[in-house]
Amino acid sequence: MLKKISAIFTAFIMTAALLCGCSSSESSSSDTSSSEASSSDVSSSDDTSSTSSVADASLTIDGEEMDTDGLIICTIDGHDVDFDTFRYYYYYTIEQYSSTYGVELEDIAETDEGFDNLLENVITAIKQEYVTYRLCEENSISLTDDEIEENEETYDYGVETAGSEEAFEETLNDAYLTPELYKTMLELASLYTKCEEELFTNDGIYATSQDEFREIVQDTDEYACVRSILIPYFCKVDITDSDVLAEYDSYTTAQKYSAKSDVYDELEEDEQEAAKEDALEVAESVIKQLEDGEDFETLLDEYNWDSGMESYTEGYYLTPESSYDEDYLEAAFSIDVGETTGIVESETYGYFIIMRNEVDMDYVEENIEDMIQSYDLPARQQLYIDIMEDMDVTYSDIYDSITADSIT
Q1: 192 C-beta neighbours (distance < 10 Å), count
Q2: Residue ranges with strand state E in 290-349
Q3: Which residues pair with 272 in a beta bridge?
Q4: Measured between alpha carbons, how far is 171 from 280 in angstroms, rounded to an integer?
Q5: CA distances (Å), origin 67, targets 62, 134, 274
Q6: Cβ contact 326:352 at 8 Å
């Protein structure tokens, strides 16, 4: 019990790190909840004398500070969005702009169009969360008394960890949260998890059944199992940093990839073109060795730079909709089992040589739930998009008057 409480508490409080300047790689898939916060350590202390980096919450409209207690900014899909909720997603969205594009609020607010787009993205972020409410309402999903009690224990654990109610509230404030909003987000996260379990896994109504998937994965138009050799554009560039050079031989594949990539990024355009030519020669050499009968796996061990091949020893299992390089996918599905492609160029990664293998049904059985979730992801994303597009939004007069100077 305590382990689960700790995990949930940490997931939410770590939002403080996200919103106070830590970058997040949150997936941007349309079904991702901002309450699934990024992983960073946030220390709590009973020392409440420290200065918060976040200003006290306030809303100023036309030069007048508003009373925000219970103030409704908009209503989305029948759910009122009060000021505290809107403010959280407002700053969450600004952080996404900053971490993704390096754009700050003052940059966004330079034009009315830029700020209007920001507000639209705030509404979108809230809609993404409220898809869970819609799914729960349509499928009669609610929390049990035990689940509600677990969330209460999670809140109490947060207070205990912080040292006092006051210290905990300061931690929440640094994440643009209030105690009541935090409790609401705990509830939403629990409902999200329950939707996952009941609707999207374990033969839920939105999940492909295991029997159906066993047939799908053996359809060569639907699935490809591939191994590939990646020869990046920068594979032949020279490391010049003496410290890196001294440790280079002990690096993992991923570390070597990163080190050479950094060198490549600093090259002039003509130098990068020369590096590409060098890499192409390597790729052509691999092709020649394959044509002469050399074993693919032997060449993969010698030339490959894709650390994923080390993790996915059975190969990548792909569908035509997988989130892979388009040229890579097209090449993978253009060959039959047992065949190898020629050189496949990806402007993002470099040169690939791909071999298509038989689907290993033993592997499929061992990983069937995870594979089904990956297979179902595009349809699931579309479901979220469809629900969000169907959501009715009504705006208060306050919303229409918000400017870049309104919310702190």
Answers
A1: 21
A2: 316-318, 344-346
A3: none
A4: 53
A5: 14, 30, 63
A6: no
Structure tokens, 174: 């640094």
Residue 79: half-sphere exposure toward Cβ, Cα within 13 Å: 18
Distance CA(217)–CA(375), nearest Å, equals 9
User: How far is 289 from 296, CA to CA, in rounded Å?
Assistant: 9
Q: What is the pLDDT of residue 280?
A: 98
pLDDT, greater one: 13 or 60: 60
CB 182 within 8 A of CB 176: no
User: What is the distance of C-alpha 260 from the center of its chain?
Assistant: 26
Within 10 angstroms of residue 91's Cβ, the number of other Cβ atoms is 20
pTM of structure: 0.73
∠ CA 267-269-275, nearest 5°, is 65
State how far the Cα of 340 lies from the Cα of 297, in Å rounded to an integer.
12
Strands (E), 192-299: 224-232
Closest CA to 230 of 247, 248, 259, 253: 253
| Tens of pLDDT, residues 311-330 | 999 999 999 989 889 999 99
